[in-house]
Design goal:
Oligomer: single chain
CATH class of the largest domain: Alpha Beta
Shape: globular
Structural class: alpha/beta
Number of strands: 16
CATH superfamily of the largest domain: Type I PLP-dependent aspartate aminotransferase-like (Major domain)
Largest sheet: 7 strands, mixed
Radius of gyration: 22 Å
Strand order of the largest sheet: 6-12-11-10-9-7-8
Length: 459
């Protein structure tokens, strides 16, 4: 179990710049009543994030109610791609709410039509059908249903196996956790569906063989006949590490799935909407999947998600069979249209690509200085630092925890470490962050690393 943040306020060094300000102990003493209320009334499963009580957020900054201000490196877990509190998004939400149309189930609406048109216009032409949902987990469940329906059509009941990758995170519902590759999240599943198979993720760090032959060999060792596979689902970068597939591997996988009438599903819930310096993560591989799954950054705010695919797959389910109570909620749709407009008009995808080069250059330089940084992964404005025991590839969750907390104390907000051994420090600021803000936050992060990692090495 990963370490937990305690609720004991402790003095920290004062920070006061134009972009960062820490003027209280952390957690702020005045925030304890809120934190204690949450601990008293919510389950333990909701605990685990740093005890920073958000009061408001704007652009790439987060504020509490007691004078503290952070440069945000979390984006509210990769949601606020366009930036927090964007006036364009607020105005769109307000205007839609003022119309009185807050919910209309699956009855047609102009705002839903505009949303699916807008999303389709940003996608490859073959992904011409869009189905709106609420969460990323829902999109994974939908993809599983479509893959198995397609498998029935192509090869009968035997063509039902879903292949995914170890250490992958696809959500917290039953189907999405069966597809996911984190064993600890599946311990509650007493009789798991045997129609799921997993293969190693070719990250080049923990899995040294990155050839596509390793994929087919791993399937064979698992006793999986390709003729029985209906779908392969993958994150375009692994959420728990920010690691990407080798380009050649992914192109070979695309050819292999097409050759076996297998649907390729790209989970873009974290990677989509410019996060990686391209609008879609799959663009880095020069491929187009059969299904693409979206969430998080789609609205930079409210809960909305989507599945996009080619008509021949998306139309396999009959009318009414894939609806959801809040499909295409009007207010969430208004937010999504405004967010997509901001991403395009302000060139935030290009900003993520350009500033991502700076981010990764600085992180790679840090890796050369500290043996506790085993790997640096990612593209654009997403990065993952794998913290390890020096001289090994064994995860060091304590080092990751201490580094995150010290960085927060310096006025740069991060979420708790993720991934294998809870040892990956994830960096994902809003795509609207400026070069000056990124430079300043990197300086604070480098200072935190110097203080924490050198001290740990000396100990």
């Amino acid at each position: 179990m990963s370490r937990q943040f305690d609720l004991i306020p402790r003095p920290v060094a004062r920070v006061d710049t134009a972009l960062r300000k820490i003027v209280t102990p952390l957690p702020a003493p005045e925030s304890l009543s809120i934190l204690e209320s949450l601990h008293r009334h919510e389950p333990v499963s909701m605990q685990g994030q740093p005890p920073i009580v958000w009061d408001r957020a704007e652009g790439f900054q987060v504020y509490d109610a007691w004078g503290n201000r952070w440069i945000d490196w979390s984006s509210g877990v990769l949601v606020a791609n366009a930036g927090h509190g964007r006036r364009e998004i607020i105005d769109a939400i307000t205007a839609q709410a003022a119309s009185g149309l807050l919910h209309n189930y699956c009855f047609p609406s102009a705002i839903r039509a505009r949303t699916v048109e807008k999303l389709a216009s940003l996608l490859p032409l073959s992904l011409d059908r869009v189905f709106l949902l609420t969460t990323g987990s829902e999109t994974v469940e939908c993809a599983i249903k479509l893959c198995r329906t397609h498998g029935l059509k192509m090869g009968g009941r035997g063509k039902h196996v879903i292949v995914s990758f170890d250490k992958a995170f696809h959500g917290r519902t039953l189907g999405s956790q069966l597809a996911g590759g984190i064993p600890s999240l599946k311990e509650w599943i007493v009789n798991p569906d045997q129609g799921f198979a997993q293969v190693p993720f070719p990250d080049g760090f923990r899995t040294t063989d990155t050839s596509f032959d390793f994929f087919t060999k791993s399937l064979a060792e698992a006793g999986v006949d390709p003729q029985n596979v209906c779908g392969v689902i993958l994150e375009t970068y692994q959420g728990g590490s920010a690691a990407f597939f080798p380009r050649e591997y992914m192109q070979a996988l695309r050819s292999w799935t097409a050759g076996h009438n297998i649907l390729l599903v790209c989970d873009e819930v974290q990677a989509g909407f410019g996060r990686t310096g391209a609008m879609w993560g799959f663009e880095h591989y020069g491929i187009v999947p059969d299904l693409a799954l979206f969430g998080k950054g789609i609205s930079s705010s409210l809960p909305l998600a989507a599945v996009a695919g080619r008509a021949g797959v998306m139309n396999l389910q009959p009318p009414g069979s894939m609806t959801s109570t809040h499909t295409g909620n009007p207010i969430a749709c208004a937010a999504a249209i405004a967010s997509m407009d901001v991403l395009v008009k302000e060139g935030l995808v290009e900003n993520a690509r350009r500033l991502g080069e700076l981010l990764h250059q600085r992180l790679r330089a840090m890796k050369l200085c500290y043996p506790q940084i085993g790997d640096v992964a990612g593209k654009g404005l997403v990065a993952g630092l794998a913290m390890v025991q020096p001289g090994t590839r064994e995860p060091d969750g304590d080092a990751a925890f201490d580094l995150v907390w010290r960085t927060i104390q310096k006025g740069v907000l991060m979420f708790a470490p993720v991934g294998f051994g809870s040892a990956t420090v994830k960096i994902c600021p809003p795509l609207s962050i400026t070069e000056a803000a990124l430079e300043e936050s990197l300086g604070a992060f480098e200072d935190a690393a110097s203080e924490i990692l050198i001290a740990r090495e000396a100990a």
